Each structure stands twice: as structure tokens, then as C-alpha cells.
Amino acid sequence: MAISEISAPEAVHIGTDDLPFVEIGNGNKLRVLQVKEKEGLWIIENIFQAGFSVQTHRHTGPVWGYTQSGGWKYKEYDYVNRAGSFLYEPAGSVHTLECIEDETRVWFHMYGVNLNLDDEGNVDSVADGAGTLAFYLAMCEQQGLGTPPVITD
Questions:
Q1: Cα–Cα dist 74/1, whole Å
Q2: Which residue segments constitute the domains of the chain, with CATH numbers given?
Q3: I need a labelling partner for 118 at 20 to 30 A (CA). Which of 11, 22, 53, 57 fits?
């Protein structure tokens, strides 16, 4: 049987200019690459500036991160993620992201939700793929970027 005769899903290509970054404040940017809400999957890419931080949070699922440029770390650990660094975060891990260099570019592949924690360790809010996608699309509209072709369910 020839490959052309096999019924299979097609690969989906998104070009580098197809999904814009949205400004989320102080030069920090976000773009959403894919959200599969039924699977709890969300893949995002960020550009952070030095001094940017993310609230302390706990992941309910695993996370994979790849740093493309710059440098960032977790407040709770000594190592620094730099260009080419790969990071695996198991479900249940807790940390506080801190960016230490301008134009730090990081790609995150996540399952589940982020439980954002207050100073006492209580859940303050929840971030997930569906909410992040809704935020991204709203910011694209607000910033005059149209509706990008994010891969969804």
C-alpha cells in the first residue's frame, strides 16, 4: 500500500509569523501555540524582561520547558535556565519563576493547571489552557492583531 493510500491525520504547520506575541506588560510577551482543553494540554511561548516574575504556583500535571535565549530561574533553586536549557517539572512541583535577563525567550508545554499560591500556600487563583487561550485571543483583538490560528481541539 502506498503512503498516499493510507488515511491518516495531516501534520499542522504554524509559521513563525502566524501567531503573534501579545504584550502583557512592561515588555513581557505571550503567545499561545496550542490548547487541547479535553487533554489539559497548553503550549505557550514567552518573552520575559529582567525583573518579571510569576506568582508561586503548583502544577497539577507535568511541564516541559525549553529556554531559547536569556536567563531565568526559580526562586527556590540555585540553577539558572539559559539558552539551550531543558527543564522537566513533575506534577506537584512548586516554584516561583524569576526572569534575570532581558529578552528571555522560553517555551512551555504543560498539562493540567497552575494553582497560584498566596504567601501562606493557599490557592489564590487557577491558570489553565482554556483561560490562557481566552486571554491571548482577547489581547490579540485589543492589540489589533486579529484572530490567530492557534491549534485547538
A1: 52
A2: 18-148 (2.60.120.10)
A3: 22
